[in-house]
Amino acid sequence: MACTKAKVSLALSLVMVFLGASLADLRVGFYSNTCPQAESIVRRVVSGAALSDPNLPAILLRLHFHDCFVEGCDGSILVDNGAISEKNAFGHEGVRGFEIVEAAKAELEAVCPSVVSCSDIVALAARDAISLANGPAYEVPTGRRDGRVSNMSLAKDMPEVSDSIEILKAKFMQKGLEAKELVLLSGMYLVFFFFVSLSFMFVWWFRISRVFWYEVQVI
């Protein structure tokens, strides 16, 4: 179990730091003076959303990955630029979780106006959702600056389900990643989808069995 968590933590760290986000520019606790409540606010919003959507860990992790893979972890996938917005790219089809980021941003703006970047919210939200699903806990270096450019053409090289393994490897190599990282990130994504789906099925079965047992007792 410890080895598995270590591998997942490595994959999560790769998602956070690759593609233009130099660790020299980021640090854990970046908002400790300017907005001390930042991380707790994001966690509270994510916790509330997780109550109604058991798939939230996979949803927010995927949002984080898609944001990072294009032009770095800059929040550009959130920018609304009309029909040509990056979020409308074919490679981002099915990506969700935008409303969670917007809800957290609204609460943060009420407390710390124009301080916490949307790209940091995406990174923190993914971390918190995974932690709430009993996944590995890890620290998130913050201090990212939001990108202003949003164009669907920039997402033309997103990995797609129809890509062969060779094409996927080539796309990852363009981002400075190797086959090992491709396997870790792909496997992690599937594991979390399986985990949340299994958890949902267990809760559903438990509730149904309780109703059935009650009816048997009444009869």
How would you characterize the overall build of this protein?
The chain is mostly helical and 219 residues long. It has a single domain, classed as Peroxidase, domain 1, CATH 1.10.520.10. Helices cover 57% and strands 0% of the residues. The protein has seven helices and no strands. Helix 3 runs antiparallel to helix 5 and helix 4 packs across helix 5. The longest helix has 40 residues. The chain is globular and about 45 Å long. It starts with a helix and ends with a helix. The N terminus and C terminus are likely disordered.
Gist of the model:
The protein is mostly helical. Helix content is 57%, strand content 0%.
List the helices and strands and how they pair.
Layout (H helix, E strand, L loop, with lengths): L1 H16 L20 H13 L5 H16 L26 H14 L6 H15 L32 H10 L4 H40 L1
Helix pairs in contact: 1-7, 2-4, 2-5, 3-5, 3-7, 4-5
Using the alpha-carbon principal axes, give the shape.
Answer: globular
Count of DSSP H/I helices: 7
Overall CATH class: Mainly Alpha
Gyration radius over CA: 19 Å
Helix content: 55-70%
Total beta-strand segments: 0
* Overall mean pLDDT: 75
Largest sheet: none
Q: SSE order in H/E notation?
A: HHHHHHH
Low-confidence stretches: 1-10, 191-219
How many structural units, i.e. domains?
Answer: 1
Beta content: under 5%
The CATH topology comes to Peroxidase, domain 1
